[in-house]
Amino acid sequence: METMLLHLHLVRHGQTFFNRYNRLQGWSNSPLTDAGLADADKAAAKLRDIEFAAAYCSDTTRAQVTAQRILDANEAAGHVRPSLVSDMHFREQFYGYFEGQDMSVAWTAAGGPHGAKNYNDIVRKYGLAATRDFLKEADPFHDAESDNEYWHRVEDGFALIADNPRLKNGDHVLQISHGNTLLSLMHRFAPEGYDLSERPANGSVTCLDFDTNEPMDRAVSVVSYNQ
């Protein structure tokens, strides 16, 4: 089987009003602030010399606007502009009943019954997967994604990229991502040596190598984080 290694450049979308107000965003649509537009432009400057063979983002406005500004700058630098694929599989974690809630309130509700006072306390005591499972448990409608539901959707997003017949070994792919998704990918795939107490900044770039011929647990390797 021929090698099929893709270089993924994952950009966290620019700052939104929900980011500014410290609210869970998930599948909700909060527009970019002026600072968020500047975040997207900073990411565009970092990536202007890369020829992207494909581009993906979630079907949320914050991801789409960030992607378009990066692709605009990339095209202006003389590169061929790829079509942007906007798909729900690239969305952030779904927080269900807690969508739009103040983060401190939501994570206290999730962690409190388990003796954890906030998000970091849940991670420290129970691991990152528990943040999703505890939030689903605390959701009175149980609509929030469990850890298994979340990863099933995210892995389907990677499968969409892998199934793109136009991509070839060594191609560069732009993917607009989300804060908790980037942190989750790092927890799952990063070797030791990364400070994961530091959340990825809006407009930051995280680089992953994706071997489409490997099973998911071995397919992703981290090149850089939160640059």
Please provide a written account of the structure.
- With 227 residues, the protein is of the alpha/beta class.
- The protein has two domains: 5-94 and 147-224, Rossmann fold (3-Layer(aba) Sandwich); 100-144, no CATH class.
- The chain contains nine helices and six strands, in the order βααβαβααααβαβαβ.
- The chain has helices at 17-20, 34-47, 61-76, 103-111, 119-126, 128-138, 147-162, 179-189, 216-219, and strands at 5-12, 52-57, 84-86, 172-177, 205-211, 220-224.
- It has a six-stranded mixed β-sheet with strand order 3-2-4-1-5-6.
- Helix 5 crosses helix 6 (128-138).
- The mean pLDDT is 97.
- Substrate binds at residues 12-19, 62, 92-95.
- It comes from Bifidobacterium adolescentis (strain ATCC 15703 / DSM 20083 / NCTC 11814 / E194a).
Question: How many helices in DSSP terms?
Answer: 9
Overall average residue pLDDT: 97
Known CATH architecture of the largest domain: 3-Layer(aba) Sandwich
State the CATH class of the largest domain: Alpha Beta
What structural class is derived from the secondary structure elements?
Answer: alpha/beta
**Helix and strand succession?**
EHHEHEHHHHEHEHE
Q: What is the topological layout?
A:
Blueprint: E1 5-12, H1 17-20, H2 34-47, E2 52-57, H3 61-76, E3 84-86, H4 103-111, H5 119-126, H6 128-138, H7 147-162, E4 172-177, H8 179-189, E5 205-211, H9 216-219, E6 220-224
Parallel strand pairs: 1-4, 2-3, 2-4
Antiparallel strand pairs: 1-5, 5-6
InterPro entries: His_Pase_superF_clade-1, His_PPase_superfam, PG/BPGM_mutase_AS, Phosphoglycerate_Mutase
Pfam families: His_Phos_1
Organism: Bifidobacterium adolescentis (strain ATCC 15703 / DSM 20083 / NCTC 11814 / E194a)
